[in-house]
């Protein structure tokens, strides 16, 4: 049995604890099960205490999340709303198994040995079928097109330059899976996504600690909000990198059409302008934390082809000033510019008016604090699974010349990995 299948089997077994399974860039991931410390809050005020505990015992790995609304509340200077998910959850794990070319345990060696033993004994009893039914939009097609037009009205009025507008979707459980444990359903979905449409920043997280877990985060995200490598920057400083994604085309089964979609995206003046706008925003965000003169971004984005879509991606990087703090990093970059728009503060107010529902962990951040740095994804292509099904959102950047129907179709292209009926 492969390591991924063992982890999925452990997750499916209602293991207790608070399982975290993270993929990460460069083939590096983590699996952890038993937290020895958990911080739960509605806002971001606890970040300083979390950082102090992390730096005091750097051998332990922390995993958790920040919701989009926790970030916008901090950005707008108002109290964070009470919501279905706490705004901040961070868990320090007794042991975490680092996945990759060479596996190793971080944390307590005895707890690490227990984790390895549980993985070795895990078996997968549920077959290979896809657990989810058809993905359905919860916003009528014309309603979404009208929201795009309203966003363009804000742009025309000079209120903003770009608005990342999203819409909600849901997929219920297939009848054959409805009697099985929710943990098994969530693990089966994530394992299938990882095998068929792997994403560099994917994650499977138990929302609720203990057994049984009534909600699971399933993330198929390719986007990194920020990664910090301690000591890897200029003159031994700490290196910070972000990879904003903006510009999308759906992939096609025909090779010629797929190549044409790539070329269309690379040559699109609209998509390039949209992308550059967000790269500039991210450069400005990182500039608040950087050593003077160290912020860098490429002249043109890179084309990245995923199993269901093509994207434009740029790496923005800098060397952090020596006295940076976790709270300052989050305040500077969160929520990510690619999932808000520009200018950020005014645009998130318009997003709230247009969407009229909480995003939750979607477009927030999934966070890992590690011995050698930290990593935050932007959980796009992400949903929360409960007894009723998987609740998703999907969206894209709206600019003045956006076509409302094309924007609606782009939302569907981005949830294709979850729609296999």
UniProtKB/TrEMBL annotation:
Gene3D superfamilies: Anthranilate synthase
Record-linked SUPFAM superfamilies: ADC synthase (SSF56322)
Source organism, top-level taxon: Bacteria
InterPro entries: ADC_synthase (IPR005801), Anth_synth_I-like (IPR019999), Chorismate_C (IPR015890)
Domain Chorismate-utilising enzyme C-terminal: 141-414
Pfam family membership, one: Chorismate_bind
Coiled-coil portions: none
The protein, known as: Anthranilate synthase component I family protein
Species per Swiss-Prot/TrEMBL record: Nannocystis pusilla
Lineage of the species this protein comes from: Bacteria, Pseudomonadati, Myxococcota, Polyangia, Nannocystales
């Amino acid at each position: 049995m492969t390591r991924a299948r063992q982890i999925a089997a452990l997750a499916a077994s209602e293991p207790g604890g608070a399982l975290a399974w993270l993929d990460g860039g460069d083939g590096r991931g983590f699996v952890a099960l038993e937290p020895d410390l958990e911080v739960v809050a509605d806002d971001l005020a606890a970040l300083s205490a979390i950082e102090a505990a992390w730096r005091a015992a750097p051998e332990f790995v922390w995993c958790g999340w920040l919701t989009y609304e926790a970030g916008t509340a901090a950005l707008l200077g108002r109290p964070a709303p009470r919501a279905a998910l706490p705004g901040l959850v961070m868990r320090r794990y007794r042991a975490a198994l680092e996945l990759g070319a060479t596996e190793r345990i971080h944390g307590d060696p005895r707890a690490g040995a227990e984790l390895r033993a549980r993985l070795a004994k895990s078996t997968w009893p549920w077959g290979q079928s896809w657990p989810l039914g058809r993905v359905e939009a919860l916003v009528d097609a014309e309603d979404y097109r009208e929201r795009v037009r309203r966003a363009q009205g804000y742009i025309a009025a000079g209120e903003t330059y770009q608005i990342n507008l999203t819409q909600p979707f849901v997929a219920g459980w297939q009848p054959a899976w409805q009697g099985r444990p929710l943990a098994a359903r969530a693990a089966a979905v994530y394992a299938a996504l990882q095998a068929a449409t792997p994403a560099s920043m994917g994650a499977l997280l138990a929302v609720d600690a203990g057994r049984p877990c009534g909600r699971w985060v399933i993330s198929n995200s390719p986007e990194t909000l920020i990664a910090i490598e301690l000591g890897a920057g200029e003159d031994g400083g700490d290196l910070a990198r972000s990879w904003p994604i903006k510009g999308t085309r759906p992939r096609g089964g025909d090779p010629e059409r797929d190549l044409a979609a790539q070329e269309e995206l690379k040559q699109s003046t609209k998509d390039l302008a949209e992308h550059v706008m967000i790269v500039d925003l991210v450069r400005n965000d990182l500039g608040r934390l950087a050593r003077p003169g160290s912020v860098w971004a490429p002249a043109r984005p890179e084309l990245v082809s995923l199993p269901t879509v093509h994207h434009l991606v740029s790496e923005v990087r800098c060397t952090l000033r020596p006295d940076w703090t976790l709270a300052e990093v989050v305040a500077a970059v969160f929520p990510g510019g690619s999932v808000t728009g520009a200018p950020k503060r005014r645009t998130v107010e318009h997003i709230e008016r247009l969407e009229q529902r909480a995003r939750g962990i979607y477009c927030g951040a999934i966070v890992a604090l590690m011995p050698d740095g930290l990593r935050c994804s932007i959980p796009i292509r992400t949903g929360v699974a409960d007894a009723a099904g998987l609740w998703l959102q999907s969206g894209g950047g709206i600019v003045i010349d956006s076509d409302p129907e094309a924007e609606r179709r782009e939302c569907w292209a981005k949830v294709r990995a979850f729609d296999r009926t």
